[in-house]
Amino acid sequence: MPPLTCSILNCHFARSVVGQAFLPAAAFQAALTASPAPASPPPTPIEWFPMHPNGAKARLKSGGTVVGPYVRHADAGLAEILCYLGFDFLLFDGEHAPIGPRECENLARVCELTGVASIARVPSNQPWMIGTTLDTGIQGIQVPMVNSAAEAEAAIRAAKYSPVGNRGLAGARAANYGMKQPFSFPAHIRNSNEESLVILQVETQAAIDNLPEIVKVPGSDVIFIGPTDLSLSLGHPGDFRHPEVQAAFEKISGIVNDSGIALGVLANTVESSLEWRARGARYILTVFEALMAPVIRSYIQTVRGE
Ligand code: 3PY
Ligand code: MG
User: Fold this and answer.
1) How deeply is 224 buried, as exposed, middle or buried, from its count of CB atoms within 10 A (0-12, 13-18, 19+)?
2) Are residues 144 and 172 in the same domain?
3) Which tens digit of pLDDT belongs to each residue from 200-215?
4) Probe target for ligand 1 pocket from 201, 231, 287, with the most ligand atoms within 8 Å of CB
């Protein structure tokens, strides 16, 4: 082997490639040309472990309340910061934002690193969208516009493997690509069915009419009120204080709370979140940009001296 002439060897000392000690350049050159180190033992297979525990699901099951923001930008750094702030879950929005399965894969990784539950809202109640999204490792699925018991059943079946549902099985990322050993499909199936969250959105007059049947379908963890679409469906878009909208909120809350399924809602302010908590909501979705906006506006005005 010709002598190495890279600048590091021209230094009096060079850092060893095998350790942290500094070697004289000649010794470093000798180490590089010496016979290779004895073969290391074969790598130990990484121990298979199940889907990361879903803390948000555990908290809901034990009667607790969970809080999380919409995430509308597929940015791992943003997701990481939101995780560090202490939310129970992040909801990656594929209905009103361009976040699909490809983006969900990396966003799920961020949540796994920080122990925060990852939930994705699919654009619509399509089995293939639900299955593909869960295959990325996302831990929960939120399904818009569930208007009947049949639609509720379709969403739940798409999210759960047999014998509960008909989700397709593969060694996808959700199953660690089958790479962690010992790998077991039955364990993956059992674990995914237990840990995954299913959140159904009720946001039309038709859904209210069918709600007594929707809550009887086994397998949903949260029935979520979409106040914006619901107000639109009732003919009062965005007017959440309208008596008819308020009456609908009350009706849905009563039926869901009586069913034992957790009530969920979108609430943009501390006041409305507390109002919904008083109504029994335990899955509170918020908009972090809306929470930040008054603070930032006030900062700008104060610093400018306005
Ligand atoms: C709605 O308000 O319609 C929603 O879907 C909330 O996410
Ligand atoms: Mg909606």
Assistant:
1) buried
2) yes
3) 999 999 999 999 999 9
4) 201
